[in-house]
Design brief:
It contains 4 helices and no strands. By secondary structure, it is an all-alpha fold. The longest helix is centred in the middle third of the chain and has 21 residues.
Length: 104
């Protein structure tokens, strides 16, 4: 579960998602009907809290330095024509020039 959460978070980061929420709990079951009531109650409580955090942060999340740095590396790669389709997309968006996705 921990490695799966990390792999998904890494992919979302690489796609430019500035805030990634993660949650994992070992349930020792193959279906919801097999999960204990105690664990289900904890999951529901945790998800309510997480949903509140997401709602409270909606529209307020800005990219950090790490994400902006990653964007600049990707920008250099696209500017040099690594993949023609990607390069065209980045050019259309103006990202190889002065535009930035977080300033749209």
């Amino acid at each position: 579960m921990k490695s799966t959460n990390k792999a998904m978070a890494d992919s979302l980061f690489n796609w430019g998602i500035p805030k990634i929420y993660k949650y994992g709990m070992a349930v020792a079951a193959t279906g919801w009907e097999e999960v204990s009531e105690k664990k289900l109650a904890k999951i529901h409580k945790d998800m309510d809290r997480l949903a509140t955090d997401i709602k409270n942060n909606h529209g307020k999340v800005k990219p950090g330095m790490k994400l902006k740095g990653w964007f600049m590396i990707c920008r250099m790669i696209q500017k040099n024509g690594y993949n023609p389709l990607d390069m065209d997309y980045w050019k259309q968006k103006g990202w190889t020039e002065g535009n930035r996705p977080w300033k749209a």
